[in-house]
Design a protein that fits this description.
Low-confidence stretches: none
Strand order of the largest sheet: 1-11-8-7-5-6
Structural class: alpha/beta
Catalytic activity: (6R)-5,10-methenyltetrahydrofolate + H2O = (6R)-10-formyltetrahydrofolate + H(+); (6R)-5,10-methylene-5,6,7,8-tetrahydrofolate + NADP(+) = (6R)-5,10-methenyltetrahydrofolate + NADPH
Pfam families: THF_DHG_CYH, THF_DHG_CYH_C
Oligomer: single chain
CATH class of the largest domain: Alpha Beta
EC number: 1.5.1.5, 3.5.4.9
Order of helices and strands: EHEHEHEHHHEHEHEEEEHEH
Distance between the termini: 33 Å
Subunit structure: Homodimer.
Helix content: 40-55%
Number of strands: 11
Number of helices: 10
Shape: globular
GO biological process, one term: L-histidine biosynthetic process
């Protein structure tokens, strides 16, 4: 292996430390405490673990943490009413509705009912439009974390060729917008891209966000390129369950200049950036300077 390992776990710890410092300063100088409300509908096991982790880390950085756990059969009107209450609550600066929602709920309607200024996931259509036109917005947490790590590793990204494999609204599209904002030349590739391997081989930055276990192998990677692996896939190998990314780690690491591992790469940055977004939302709501280095 020749690649530098980009340690997302350590990076996320530094980000949380920065957030905690800002939160402490807000309390001392302004008497303000950022508040994050997380809404979980149903009892999806993966979502349960994620929400518990979010709540724990929110408290650790000194923020006000609120959790609303609703039954799987909660009526859409009741969920919308709860969001309206949170929108109007001055102690809540960030609102996150955990996805996926049960099938009877309209996810787009629910997400777009959140006040865009409190939409710390960055999924509201207003924030999508603002990001796409280069204006100030709430930025989706996973792409924001990827950009932070890329900036930390490379410094200036200007002029680099970036290929994003995956076109989801949650990762692929906003990732491309952020890279464009940093003056990269960006290609969005996907499962129907002709000669995907050749497209990937031209990338200085290769973001694997396609949702297919170990799809990107070393022969897709340009020597010395940086591979950001967003994928989280649970597979069974040699009779054991294992967590792997969208990039086959060993073969990619043998060619790449730098790579994020799975686990321990992009994943920890998602929650760290959720906290950073909540802090940013709080500062904006109170007309205070935004924390440097924690937003775009």
């Amino acid at each position: 292996m020749t690649a530098t390992i980009i340690d997302g776990k350590a990076f996320a710890a530094r980000v949380r430390g920065q957030v905690a410092e800002h939160v402490s300063r807000l309390a001392e100088e302004n008497g303000i405490q950022p508040g994050l409300a997380v809404v979980l509908v149903g009892a999806d096991p993966a979502s349960e673990v994620y929400v518990k982790s979010k709540g724990k880390m929110t408290v650790e950085v000194g923020m006000h943490s609120v959790e609303h756990r609703l039954a799987d059969d909660t009526a859409e009107g009741d969920l919308l009413a709860l969001i309206a209450t949170l929108n109007a609550d001055p102690k809540i600066h960030g609102i996150l509705v955990q996805l996926p929602l049960p099938a009877h709920l309209n996810s787009e309607l629910v997400i777009n009912s959140i006040d865009p200024a409190k939409d710390v996931d960055g999924f509201h259509i207003s924030n999508v439009g603002l990001l796409g036109t280069g204006q100030k917005s709430m930025v989706p947490c996973t792409p924001l974390g990827c950009l932070m790590m890329l900036r930390d590793h490379h410094g200036d990204l200007s002029g680099m060729n970036a290929v994003v494999v995956g076109r989801s609204n949650i990762v692929g599209k906003p990732m491309a917008q952020l890279l464009l904002g940093d003056s990269c030349t960006v290609t969005i590739a996907h499962s129907r891209t002709k000669d995907l391997k050749a497209v990937c081989q031209g990338a200085d930055i290769l973001v694997a966000a396609v949702g297919r276990a170990e799809m990107i192998t070393g022969d897709y990677v340009k020597p010395g390129a940086t591979v950001i692996d967003v994928g989280i896939n649970r597979i069974e190998r040699d009779g054991k369950k294992k967590l792997v990314g969208d990039a086959e780690f060993a073969s990619c690491a043998a060619v790449a200049g730098a790579i994020t591992p799975v686990p321990g790469g992009v994943g920890p940055m998602t929650i760290a950036c959720l906290l950073a977004n909540t802090l940013t939302a709080c500062c904006r709501a109170n007309g205070l300077a935004e924390p440097q280095g924690l937003t775009v």
